[in-house]
Automatic annotation (TrEMBL):
Keywords: Amino-acid transport, ATP-binding, Cell membrane, Membrane, Nucleotide-binding, Transport. It is a peripheral membrane protein. Residues 20-254 form the ABC transporter domain. It comes from Kocuria gwangalliensis. It is found in: Cell membrane. It comes from the Bacteria. Belongs to the ABC transporter superfamily. The keyword ATP-binding applies. This is Amino acid ABC transporter ATP-binding protein. InterPro entries: AAA+_ATPase, ABC_ATPase_HisP-typ, ABC_transporter-like_ATP-bd, ABC_transporter-like_CS, MetN_ABC_transporter-like, P-loop_NTPase.
Length: 258
């Protein structure tokens, strides 16, 4: 149970516990301190974009949220799970958290449809019929119903990333984490992926998105968090952080990417 639920309930009356709450998170690889006292909250239904230079610790932060990395110290709750509790049911937690990576990580030997059903059957114990129905609904959401029987290698990068999104959605997650989902794509396919993410956001999905797409962050995010050197330098409403950043480090980063 998050010790910050009370505080956040006061901040936004009527809301539930945060979807993500990170307090005082530290992560090091040997002597290299990658995350140094990170605080981060994502409320249900909120879209938060995480921006910052390469090497600032964005991916490591995302990976700590679903225990792909183990932090040295700090408190993390995700979807009501205390992630730093040694007795956490990791599988149950991950079931609630969809993750989309820069590299799509689809199974190359399975069809698009099978990519979207395999975890539903194995992890959620859905029947094949139910899993296929859910998968087709989500392939329709990303506009790829007609590719259901093809293999990932037959699709463009943008189409593969849309399959990865459909696969994640097929698990009915409470929260979606995106780590630079468009960075590996050909420029002409980036827009299709961003459009799907924009629709998801409008439908109320809770999303934490690492991205270098500043126009997406400005238009879609409720809040933008700027990280540099393993700390949160600045955060606030998207238009404020991107449009009139307060810190010199934020200004300097934005002048390089905008
Ligand atoms: P970002 O996603 O913001 O580019 P990362 O979280 O990938 O940053 O990396 C932050 C820092 O941690 C970098 O200096 C990177 O080299 C280092 N790092 C990331 N993963 C590892 C690892 N498994 N072992 C050692 N160092 C790592
Ligand atoms: Mg990264």
């Amino acid at each position: 149970m998050s010790t910050f639920a009370t505080e956040n309930t006061q901040a936004t009356p009527g809301s539930q516990a945060p979807a993500v709450s990170v307090r005082g998170l530290n992560k090091a690889y040997g002597d290299l301190e990658v995350l140094r006292g990170i605080d981060l909250t994502v409320h249900p239904g909120e879209v938060v974009c995480l921006i910052g230079p390469s090497g600032s610790g964005k991916s490591t932060l995302l990976r700590c949220l679903n225990l792909l990395e183990e932090p040295q110290s700090g408190d993390i709750t995700v979807s009501g799970f205390d992630v730093t509790d040694p007795d956490i049911d990791v599988d149950a937690m991950r079931r609630n958290v969809g993750m989309v990576f820069q590299q799509f990580n689809l199974f190359p030997h399975l069809t698009v449809l099978e990519n979207c059903t395999v975890s539903q059957v194995k992890v959620l114990k859905r029947s094949n019929a139910e899993a296929e129905q859910t998968a087709m609904t989500n392939l329709e959401r990303v506009g790829l119903v007609e590719k259901a029987q093809q293999r990932p290698g037959q699709l463009s990068g943008g189409q593969q990333q849309r399959v990865a999104i459909a696969r994640a959605l097929s698990m009915n997650p409470d929260l979606m984490l995106f780590d630079e989902p468009t960075s590996a794509l050909d420029p002409e396919t980036v827009g299709d992926v961003l459009a799907i993410m924009r629709t998801l956001a409008n439908e109320g999905m809770t999303m934490l998105v690492v991205t270098h797409e500043m126009s997406f962050a400005r238009d879609v995010a409720d809040r933008v968090v700027f990280m540099d050197g393993g700390v949160v330098v600045e955060e606030g409403p998207a238009r404020e952080v991107i449009g009139s950043p307060k810190h010199e480090r934020t200004r300097s980063f934005l002048s390089r990417v905008l």
